[in-house]
Amino acid sequence: MTFLEGIQGDLIFPIFVYEDEQAYKQSLDSGYMNNSKVFSKNLVNRFEELAQLKISNMLLFGIPKKRDRSGSEAFKKNGVIQIAIQTIRKNFDKKFNILSDVCICQYNTSGHCGVTNGSREGNSQPKYGMRIDNDKTINILGKISLSLCESGTDFIAPSSMMDGQILYLSNLLEKSGFKKVKIMSYSAKHNSCLYSPFRNYNYHSPNFIDKSSYQCNFNNPRESMREILYDIKEGSDWVMIKPSFWYMDLVRLAKDLVDVPLVVQNVSGEYALLKAGSKIDPIDQMEWTVQYLKSLRRAGADKIISYLIFDLLVDFENESTLSV
């Protein structure tokens, strides 16, 4: 397990903070990613567990009680993530490095990462052909980012894939007095079926959502590289490729082009595949997970976001205890 000990500081654990207890309990029925979910009132206890496992890097997502068309709950000062950051800082000071997602897909009624055109909401929206208002969305991302900075986040992590979002947000942070807050951009976030386990339990409308107009195409690696290079030019401190499992060729390609930390995200579908495999035919899950993470590292990833981290560190801790 020398490999794990060597990269533990580069692992980032995603946490979904639920504002509504009933929604939190319903989400547990999936059986997937449950260690990444926490009801807001139980936040301190969960973070005490994470501290014991020496998990120090957290990527926070909010699951609000209320949603509207523009996702306004995302930038309220008393929003679910804003309160969560303040609670973490109050109880743990700087023990955790906090990265905060900047998007509206969990907060709005469409499930899109941007403000959609027209007045239709929820299930009445068409599956295809939705137009995103790029500039209006960027303005909202700015409001979200400032509210997160005011709450005490270390990083903002814009994941909307709007054109020019990094330039806008980097300039906004600088002029607003938040130069020390860093940006981790979802630079090459690909349109993928691998997000479905997350969407099925955390979106207002879990039906198919076509995001191909603003997320990267699986078949166009040049576009993915352009997105990454543009984000660096516009002021991103870290850049990301998402998903990871079938994109390691892009990780290798990007690593040869960039001189900033390269992040990859092991998404919900990839996590579900491993879990499903362990149910069909018992496997050494810890060994499979280590080799999977090692392959990402070998491809060129400097940082790895993964739902697997909690289970892996629990198994590692148990194995260490048994060997004593």
Automatic annotation (TrEMBL):
Gene Ontology molecular-function annotations: porphobilinogen synthase activity; zinc ion binding
Source superkingdom: Archaea
Record EC number: 4.2.1.24
Coiled-coil regions listed in the entry: none
Pathway(s) of this molecule: Porphyrin-containing compound metabolism; protoporphyrin-IX biosynthesis; coproporphyrinogen-III from 5-aminolevulinate: step 1/4
Active site residues according to the UniProt entry: 189 (schiff-base intermediate with substrate), 242 (schiff-base intermediate with substrate)
Residues binding Mg(2+), per UniProt: 227
UniProt KW keywords: Heme biosynthesis, Lyase, Magnesium, Metal-binding, Porphyrin biosynthesis, Zinc
Family indicated by similarity: Belongs to the ALAD family.
Annotated catalysed reactions: 2 5-aminolevulinate = porphobilinogen + 2 H2O + H(+)
Gene symbol of the encoding locus: hemB_2
Protein name: Delta-aminolevulinic acid dehydratase
PANTHER family xrefs: DELTA-AMINOLEVULINIC ACID DEHYDRATASE
